[in-house]
Amino acid sequence: MGMLVFDGLRESLKSARVVSKARRKWKHWRSGRDTQAALSWLARERDAALQELEHLRERYLRLEKRAIERNLVEPCRALFVYPEQEDVPKHSLPIGAGNSVTKQARGRIVWNGLSDDQAFHLEMECLRRVGDSQVSLDGRCHFPQLLTWDATARSFTTTHNGTPLDKLQRTVSVPDIEAQLSSIAMTLEKASVAHLDIAGGKNVTVDEAGTLCLIDFDIACLDGFPLSEKIQRRYEAFLAAGGYVGFVEELRKATLENPMIEPS
User: Fold this and answer.
1) Per the database entry, which stretches of residues form a coiled coil (predicted)?
2) Which of 192, 186, 181 is nearest to 220 (CA)?
3) At residue 30, does pLDDT exceed 80?
4) DSSP assignment of 148-208
5) Given this model, what pLDDT does residue 11 score?
6) CB-side neighbour CA atoms (13 Å) of 79
7) Three-state secondary-structure class, residue 79
């Protein structure tokens, strides 16, 4: 009996050593894999940062003759002036006020070339402008409405305006599609906002009533002034495609080619 117990313990110990050795090998392999991923990520961040520095250098050289007249230290803050919270225009919400979404603005140097602060101010200003410039005659709201924000945390809360087109699970009837698309484009043009990230419909939502809404302004251009090299390239493509006319075509394509959208 004692020998059986001893043999059992010996086999268990042997198995434990094998498992331990395998775990050490796996951890070593994983560490190496993560190191390579980290180095690759750092390389992308470095290249993106260098592109943004070159972009800023070229812009400074173009503006140098006006350097005394304008404050070039914090151009972002000088550009974006939004109202005090109590002065936000009160629109009738298309949905219940409790149905909202909170977002924290983040700058991603590889994706949009912005700092956290720039990303926050850019999206806040875009939402403020389109909120003030709505041209829809039927009372529909085609953009998220600002509810609250926290500049310190760079977060804000807006109305939730439906499901992204690329996430639809069932057919939705959308009335007056052309009128809605036209209203969206006219509002953007009136507000001097160029939305540069339709992304195949992921940034376009639709609610139960069939109202289309444009969301996520973290890649956008205000007054023809791109804040980063990444946004400048997108804006140049926007202009080459026909500006707001081309934007409507892209928006129409993302909407009408979605099999879950049913024009009515």
Assistant:
1) 39-70
2) 192
3) no
4) EEETTTTEEEEE---EEGGG--S-EEESSHHHHHHHHHHHHHHHTEEE---GGGTTEEE-T
5) 52
6) 24
7) helix
Give the CA angle between residues 170, 175, 178 to the nearest 5°.
115
Select from 65, 89, 118 the last residue of a domain. Answer: 65
Cα-flanking dihedrals φ and ψ of residue 190, to 5°?
-60, -35
Alpha-carbon gap, residue 68 to 115, rounded angstroms: 25
Where does the pLDDT of residue 264 fall: very low under 50, low under 70, confident under 90, or very high at 90 and above? confident
Longest dimension (CA), the chain: 95
- Residue 78 belongs to domain spanning: 74-263
Q: Could you tell me if 50 and 109 lie in one domain?
A: no
Same domain membership, residue 52 and residue 94: no
Quickly state the pLDDT bin for 27 (edges 50, 70, 90). low
Residue 101 β-bridge partners: 158
On whether both 257 and 127 belong to a single domain, the answer is yes
Model pLDDT, residue 28: 53
Quote the pTM value: 0.70
